[in-house]
Amino acid sequence: MSRSNKKWFSLNLSRKQNDDSGTCGCGKTSGGCGSHSNDAEMSEEEFYHAAVNASIGDEREKDGFDQVFDVKMDRRTAFRKLAASLLIGAGAVNTSCSMLSSDESKEKAQIDWEEQFKGNYKLMTDDEKKNTVDRLVRSYQLRTGKTISMSSKNAEEDVLFGYAFNISKCQGYMDCVSACVKENNQDRNSQMQYIRIHEMKDGEGLKFDEADDNYYHEVPAEGHFYLGTQCFHCDNPPCVEVCPVQATWREDDGLVVVDYDWCVGCRYCMAACPYDGRRFNWSKPEVPEEEVNHNQHYLGNRMRKKGVMEKCTFCVQRSREGKNPACVEACPTGARIFGNLLDPNSTIRWVLENKKVFRLKEDLGTEPKFWYFMD
Amino acid sequence: MKQLKVFRSLVKDSFDVVTHGTVKYHIWMGFLTFMMLVGMYCYSIQLNEGLSVTGMTDRVSWGLYISNFTFLVGVAAAAVMLVMPTYVLHDVDFKQAVLIGEGLAVAALIMCLAFVIADMGGPSVLWHMIPGLGVFNFPNSMLTWDVIVLNGYLFLNITIPFYILFRHYQGKEAKSKVYVPGAILSVFWAVGIHLVTAFLYQGLQARPFWNNALLGPRFLASAFAAGPALIILVLAIIRNFTAFKIEDKTLKKIAMVVTVAAQINLIMLISELFKEFYAPTHHSESAYYLFFGLHGKDALLPWIWTAIPLNVLATVLLTFHKLRNNPKILYFSCFILFVAIWIEKGFGLIVPGFIPGPYGKIAEYTPTGVEIGVTLGIWALGAFVFTVLAKTAIGIELGELRFKNNKN
Ligand code: SF4
Ligand code: SF4
């Protein structure tokens, strides 16, 4: 939908044109993605549930293979039975070791188990998405006693998010950076930040290599200007192409997202991103409980684990609710503009049509949806 | 059923063979086991704490593990240099060498896979990558290609020697009809694994240091120098410590292969240097960093300036027949060539790809103790696997290991 009525310059170098049709967001054009039918596999499921001897709703688990082909495979059946029997073994050990193993810990184990062997979010049906989100909410509740709200809201139709950055306005306050860290529950230990503000000297143009992206002094510094970078949500994202397990993809509204539970942590996408847009959890991310943002989205700011990739999502938990991302809201100078590129009345469209905009490294054909302009 | 019985007896016999040996052999195996335990301990730390115990960061996100992986793919591919003449051209005097070469390929591939797994952030969800169970992003992701070709190559390199040894074990000739097609396939396959691994890096427009058309061919040339160089060293050791006969002629032929590959490699290096330094562009910064350092950051200088002279010296030594035909000089130049290419194709290739970063930021990388421990552990694993394989193979080839059929 986005390709036909593009309003910006395009190199048309895209290696592949997505013609996703219908409601299915899996991007498969042939063979069906498995997100339309709901049959099969009940007996196995019963077996599975009997085996784990606890229940948390009767949703069906599909792995990537089932999702793709939606057929019953012997191999898969065998795998699952093996898994179930392993669990029985583990459960037996568990109960014999601890007399206090309560219903809650069983439920926890059950959730962990199902989470470990769930499929790729990108290929899930809406029901499956809801189920995994419910499990994660419940798991958080069991662990911390706190209730979070987590959304699995899909992309809306006729929406394509874009972003513009006013270089003349930015004063380098970095309010966007701290707002982003808070909003997105980023690891406080490693001081992970999606946004980098580059401080450059006036009169020397965009000299990134001489810029300072880690300054600790009063701003705005005399004779300097500021420019922010983050993930640009490329329309032709190289990071997505290289992922060996499709753990990262472009949603229909243009957001490039990561399924933190599907990522295997190979960091190939990080090497492929020309814009330093990705961040890796080198150790277990930690956010003090009282600072956790409880308003979450599965693809956005939910809690990550160690060894997975994450990145800016244009605050999917906010933008899909019609709000601005946290950085836009936090910016005291109004340098940041966010909106729907397909809406002719949006501010972002006004900027693109009336300002002289440019993007970074356009020669790479990545088609970022992030423009810079000056007053 | 009979085959199964033979197989069982083979496993038993080979177990006997590998657990018996000279004192030196036991010290060697004990040392390798110790190193593997150290590696496992380091890996357990890494599993617990996460990859933060390594020197890698968001700025330099691949390091020692991927460097070694890249280099070892080359070593594995080099077995083909021996397979080809032996199986296809019936060049008999390569035959013993080739079993060793393929054993080396198996060991190198196992190390490759171990390095990739060590580098993963989530080894517990590795099943996401298994075609059929997870989602395999084929053909878009070069990494999935790599998984396929590496495992296929591993399969080929296990089955072909296994078939030959299995026949010999029973005192039968191996039928060339059976293994020659496999051998020919593995010749193409070896080129494939190396090209695909090069494409892994070459296909990234984000990293100009890798995104150049010479990367693939240069990979091949350096692989065909370093791999057979290692084989020469291994053969020399085997010749010294076992009764396995390897003729001088064989070594000389392999040395020829090493020489040509090293020469081609050097030409390509010159071409690369010319391009980067005659008319330097913004994209030459990584090369500048590698060879001269940038803005006072020069962690890689000692490495690359060890590698280049060693590389040149080895190539020069090998080029002169007189020198090459002297075993001492041959072993020496093979050794320094191996080290030089390990530095160049490992550290010197992977790390500068990330420096300077996408926006010119220079953040350096130094491996940590844990990382080095895991790396040494994996090398020990490879050496261990190779020793076991080679000892069995030599036993069978020398006729010490034979299936004893009680019934007839
Ligand atoms: S900026 Fe980087 S991470 Fe973001 S979509 Fe583009 S390539 Fe991917
Ligand atoms: S790190 Fe995760 S998201 Fe990135 S390429 Fe690897 S599996 Fe995909």
Automatic annotation (TrEMBL), chain A:
PROSITE patterns: 4FE4S_FER_1, 4FE4S_FER_2
One of the Pfam families matching this protein, by short name: Fer4_11
Coiled coil: none
InterPro entries the record matches: 4Fe4S_Fe-S-bd, 4Fe4S_Fe_S_CS, ET_IronSulfur_Cluster-Binding
Keywords: 4Fe-4S, Iron, Iron-sulfur, Metal-binding
Location of the 4Fe-4S ferredoxin-type domain: 254-283
Keyword Zinc: no
Molecular function as annotated in GO: 4 iron, 4 sulfur cluster binding; metal ion binding
PANTHER family hit by this protein: PROTEIN NRFC, PROTEIN NRFC HOMOLOG
Protein name: 4Fe-4S dicluster domain-containing protein
Lineage: Bacteria, Pseudomonadati, Bacteroidota, Flavobacteriia, Flavobacteriales
From TrEMBL, chain B:
Mode of membrane association: Multi-pass membrane protein
InterPro entries hit by this protein: DsrP-like, NrfD-like
GO CC term (a single one): plasma membrane
Domain of life, source organism: Bacteria
TM region(s), chain numbering: 25-43, 64-84, 96-118, 148-166, 178-201, 221-242, 254-274, 300-320, 329-352, 372-394
Entry annotated with the keyword Metal-binding: no
Keywords, sorted A to Z: Cell membrane, Membrane, Transmembrane, Transmembrane helix
Pfam family, one: NrfD
Compartments, as annotated in UniProt: Cell membrane
Family per similarity comment: Belongs to the NrfD family.
Protein name listed in UniProt: Polysulfide reductase NrfD
Protein's organism: Aestuariibaculum sediminum
Classification of source organism: Bacteria, Pseudomonadati, Bacteroidota, Flavobacteriia, Flavobacteriales
Gene of this entry: nrfD
